[in-house]
Amino acid sequence: MSNVIRIDAESLRRLTEVTFLRYGFSSEQAAAAADVLLYADLHGLDSHGVCNLLPIYVKALSDRSILPSSTLRRVRKKGAISTFDASGMLGLLAAKGAMEAAIELAAEHSVGAVTVMNSSHFGAAGYFARMAAQSGMIGLALTNLGNRPVGYAQGSRRAIIGTNPLGFASPAGDLPSFVLDMSTTVVASGKIKLAKDLGEEVPVGWMVNQSGQPVTDPHSYLEGSGFLVALGGWQRSTGGHKGLGLSLLVEVLSGVLSGASVSLGFEDEQNSIGHFLFALDVSAFLEGSIFAERMERFLSSLLGEPVFEGHEALTYPGHSDAKIALERGVHGIPLPAPTVAALNWHASTLGAVSLAEIGQ
């Protein structure tokens, strides 16, 4: 059997929805949560899609660290700012509700800033930032990992930072929206786990050992001998201090500011993941149509820039993702064979239909 199997996207969506329904979510909630995960799989963000359904979401629902009955509760509001307590909600839904609130605030005040505490893993940050772009606004979505850091920085003897992703999105006229979705570590930790499932080594630069030497065996990360590092790497000379700074920026906004747990200094409390969602109404600066035209002109120029031989054509965040989504919508979503086997076993326990393979 191939290490990768193509799965029909709607088949994957149905199993994801059925799973959330079985754990007590409403049909609307199950569909919304599945949409976040399928967005990641369709747009090539493989480490944040349905591969996490069992090891992150079902596991947390089973041990009651995620509570289907919880809802967002606004605990503070002042002008264009709101703070919410998710009370153990599914992060996929908490972040969606928080960005909806940020967009609503921005429609009234031109900006909307929202924090969330007591949440959980929220999937792909770009999904929530793109919600603002789809409303003609600029969006920003940040999250921390609470008090469970996984990344090392500049020789630290222990993990001190989360992957702390950020998503930024903007309308781009007739072009696909600009959607930046990135971790502030070299890669998301899920990509290392994905490489393990595919039986592949990881590229040099993703991990180092305690001496700062490159490590390429994904098992070393899980065993604790391979260290995931901040953007820029292990050394200040390669820009590691900039990656650390970005990670700390996300930690301040999504952790310290929200009242959630933080990667350092809060180890003795129950973990509380925090989010920061921001929406900016561009029409407060320029007519929306003018802004979109300027973005389209800017990004079209970037796409047309010549490159030296041996380099791929320039693109921008969101442009290649849109192409991938079109291709995967037709030809299916590639998943590691072990993931497909685990999901099909899970489907059998629910009495659900197995995943539909494409091209097998």
TrEMBL record:
EC number: 1.1.1.-
Broad class of enzyme this protein falls into: oxidoreductase
A single GO molecular function term of this UniProt record: oxidoreductase activity
InterPro entries: Mal/L-sulf/L-lact_DH-like_ah, Mal/L-sulf/L-lact_DH-like_NADP, Mal/L-sulfo/L-lacto_DH-like_sf, Malate/L-lactate_DH-like
Pfam families the record matches: Ldh_2
Transmembrane regions listed in the UniProt entry: none
Keywords: Oxidoreductase
Domain of life from the UniProt record: Bacteria
Record-stated family: Belongs to the LDH2/MDH2 oxidoreductase family.
Name of this protein: Malate/lactate/ureidoglycolate dehydrogenase, LDH2 family
Organism: Rhizobium tibeticum
Gene: yjmC
